[in-house]
Amino acid sequence: MAKPMEKITWQELETGSVVTEIGNAREYETGSWRSERPVVEASQCIKCGVCWLFCPDACIVRASDGHFEADLTYCKGCGICAKECPVGCITMITEEG
Amino acid sequence: MDKFSVFSSRLVEKSENFTSGHRACQGCAEALAVRHVMKALGRDTVVAMSTGCMEIISSPLPLTSWRVPWIHNAFENSAAVISGCESGMKAMMRKGKIPAKKINFVAMGGDGATADIGMGALSGALERGHDMVYICYDNEAYMNTGIQRSSSTPYGASTTTSPAGKVSIGQHTQKKNMAQIAVAHNIPYVATACSSFPFDLMEKVKRAAETPGAAYVHVLSVCPTGWRIPTQDAIKYGRLAVDSCVFPLYEVIEGEYRLSYKPYKKLPLTEYLKGQGRFRHLTDKEIQMIQQRVDKDYERILRLSEEEK
Ligand SMILES: Cc1ncc(C[n+]2csc(CCOP(=O)(O)OP(=O)(O)O)c2C)c(N)n1
Ligand code: SF4
Ligand code: SF4
Ligand code: SF4
Ligand SMILES: [Mg+2]
Predict the structure, then answer these.
(1) Residue A88: its pLDDT value, please?
(2) Which CATH number covers residue B228?
(3) Is A13 part of a structural domain of the chain?
(4) B5 lies in a domain?
(5) B22 CA from centroid of ligand 2 (Å)
(6) Among partner residues B61, B231, B235, which is closest to A13 by beta-carbon distance?
(7) Which helix (H) or strand (E) holds A1?
(8) pLDDT for B4
(9) Is the confidence at residue B1, as pLDDT, over 70?
(10) Contact predicate A52/B9, CB 8 Å
(11) Does the residue A37 lie in any domain?
(12) Chain B contact for A93, CB < 8 A?
């Protein structure tokens, strides 16, 4: 979006409140909701993709060396990935501050 | 993202047509179900969605999580709106105004939108036989407005409008069986699914979209907020619902039943109920009573799918 969403006034909306840009919700960074953060022990990751498959926020990405990790821009810290990982290589860590 | 090397998740569509940045609660398996459904459907899809959690969390103006044409609807009419889209686009293709191609016309709603408020529009659309798919995300209450009971809330569940207490067990009516109501319309495809079984879910949604005529998919969608469970357990409870046969996974293709998954060992109902705050008040005797009902319903589905073999 050209303008930050909080700067947009109602006069600038499309007729009928049509949103013409697809998937622009990615501008809203849900990572700020998080109180816990998943940390992947990369050396143990078997690259199965189970965490990726079950993340409700579609925020598991693949690092350059092939293992999976959370994109903290969006991760809400639900802990599903840690719970479902078949080898248990994800730990939830409390966010400080 | 590149191809995944191991496990069949590498066969799953990588692109996200329902993007991050949506505002569902932490651990919302209803949002996960939408994510899976949209992977199965792909970009050549038009979605009409009734109000409810999934609509509210994905479309706060001026943002949207959708990467397909998506129409917000009032509570009751997503099935009617998608009927119109399908008929209109078909007519435009016939007249050569738009190129002819396969488009998935999909209406979606929660259990309140489906089993209560949009039931009339849905029944009409199924009866008319539009080439469409209806997907119900069943989290067993009106969650978006604060956990009010719907006709899809199971017996014994405590909600804000069916609170359990000294004189009440909570919800005192039986869960309406929407999949069976869809079957009674004699449509070519009906299925039940759950996002804890993503491959099964995606396969069914694909099949529903490929089926000419009307198709209905009922998706049990675990809601940690309304079910009062820890967020990380959302997938586990979907699995328990299926493994305890509270929510059997099956398809009905041209009237013929096919069980999709038979638990290796049928779990006792308590495994599913315990740990869920909404069922916390139930006594052993009450659970026993509910167990009998679960057994009876499951045996019926089992019988129907075995008769077809
Ligand atoms: C006719 C009408 N009645 C009530 C509402 C308020 N309302 C909006 S969403 C909602 C709850 C939706 O429940 P459900 O369809 O089960 O979806 P969920 O939020 O549980 O996913 C209610 C009551 C409305 N928008 N329109
Ligand atoms: S904690 Fe939840 S939101 Fe964060 S990456 Fe894991 S599954 Fe996704
Ligand atoms: S579930 Fe665990 S082992 Fe599998 S890819 Fe994710 S982190 Fe790696
Ligand atoms: S209330 Fe339930 S269904 Fe609604 S967004 Fe929250 S977890 Fe999801
Ligand atoms: Mg609901």
Answers:
(1) 97
(2) 3.40.50.970
(3) no
(4) no
(5) 13
(6) B61
(7) none
(8) 37
(9) no
(10) yes
(11) yes
(12) no
Determine the structural domain holding residue B139 and report its residue range. 11-307
Q: pLDDT tens digits for B200-248?
A: 999 999 999 999 999 999 999 999 999 999 999 999 999 999 999 999 9
Interface test mutation site (partner A, options B3, B8, B26, B225, max chain A beta carbons within 10 A): B26
Residue of chain B with shortest Cα separation from A12: B62
Instruction: Look at residue B97 and tell me if it is in a domain.
Output: yes
Q: How many domains are there within chain A?
A: 1
Vertex B271 angle, CA A50 and A37, to 5°? 35
Cβ of B234: how many Cβ atoms within 10 Å? 31
CB pair distance less than 8 Å for A19 and B32: no
Q: How many domains does chain B have?
A: 1
Q: Is there an atom of ligand 1 within 6 Å of B107 CB?
A: no
Q: What is the CATH number of the domain that holds A40?
A: 3.30.70.20
Whether residue B147 is contained in a domain is answered as yes
Domain range enclosing A35: 30-97
B2 part of a folded domain? no
Specify the residue for token string 């080898």: A87
Binned at pLDDT 50, 70 and 90, residue B309 comes out as low
Residue B18: phi and psi, rounded to 5, are: -130, 100
Asked if the C-beta of A19 comes within 8 angstroms of chain B's C-beta atoms, the answer is: yes
Q: What is the pLDDT of residue B6?
A: 40
**Nearest atom within ligand 4 for CA of residue B53:** 4
Q: Is residue A66 part of a domain?
A: yes
Please indicate whether residue B139, judged by its CB atom, sits closer than 6 Å to ligand 1: yes
In a domain, A58, yes or no: yes
C-alpha–C-alpha distance, residues B307 and A14, integer Å: 55
Q: Where are the alpha helices (DSSP H) in chain B?
A: 29-41, 53-58, 78-94, 111, 119-128, 178-183, 198-210, 224-227, 234-243, 269-273, 284-307
Q: What is the pLDDT of residues B61-117, one digit of tens each?
A: 999 999 999 999 999 999 999 999 999 999 999 999 999 999 999 999 999 999 999
